[in-house]
Amino acid sequence: MLEVREARYFVAVAEELHFGRAAERLHMSQPPLSQTIKTLEQRLGTKLLTRTTRAVALTSAGEVLLQQCRRLVNMADEAETATRDAASGQLGRLRIGAVTSAFFEPLPAMLAKFRSQHPRVDVVLRELDTQDAVRALADHGIDVALVRRLATPPGIARRTLLEEKFVLAVPATWDHVPDDVVDLADTAREPWIWLPRHISSDYHDQVVACCRQAGFSPVVTNTADSIVSQLAMVACDIGVAIVPDSAAEHGLNLHGRVRFVPIKKPTTIELAALWLEDTANPAVAAFVRD
């Protein structure tokens, strides 16, 4: 089997057609270079070069071998470069699982910056609720999770991306709910659209805390699987929901069918990036750092 080292030696000699110059190009002495070419000819059972006191020339077999050796050397160089790029996070794949609202902010800006600096890394996105994203992260199904979670499980690193206040989402047709700051206690008897605890325990608990701080526990009549679904239900005039204020900032009023009203003494919720502390994917550090 032809070794990459032998191929490099033969390419140098074949291109220089001079053992002395080829040895200088390879930063080695001439005797081991000559011996390598001689051993190669013996192993292949054919002359690759014709040598005279005045010149070195390629045989027809040598011409064929030169083409193959160039290909082998190029492939070896590309493999080395690709390996180094992958180790530095410049090549590979990054799998991201994110809650629905993260696709509005901050994921677009984070992806744009990451892709501009790491264009050869393939990014794979999955829409997941918080609980499923944390499980997928622990099972190595994704590399980064963008979730609404306060507690950080063991073995997982965290970076807070956003801290948002809650606002009240109400149907635009409901005139009895004012536009200015509302005391949630005044909405205690409204039908509520809720995000169940199994979807995102920390998010659910913060919304409950917001209501309890106002002195009541809401009567839940409708449930949704995401914040976007909650807002779609609000737009259907069936109830109210507590959502992060980013929903208002990003125009998720569904063509004016939803109003966002500030809450008196609101609690907050964080959107955070989570990843395994012992991840072997260098693209993770580049993404969460950027």
Automatic annotation (TrEMBL):
Keywords: DNA-binding, Transcription, Transcription regulation
Signal peptide per UniProt: none
Recorded GO CC terms: protein-DNA complex
CDD domains tied to this protein: PBP2_LTTR_aromatics_like
All copies of domain HTH lysR-type, residue ranges: 2-59
Keyword Repressor among record annotations: no
GO molecular function, one term: DNA binding
InterPro entries, sorted: LysR_HTH_N, LysR_subst-bd, WH-like_DNA-bd_sf, WH_DNA-bd_sf
Assigned protein family: Belongs to the LysR transcriptional regulatory family.
Identification of the protein by name: LysR family transcriptional regulator
Lineage of the species this protein comes from: Bacteria, Bacillati, Actinomycetota, Actinomycetes, Propionibacteriales
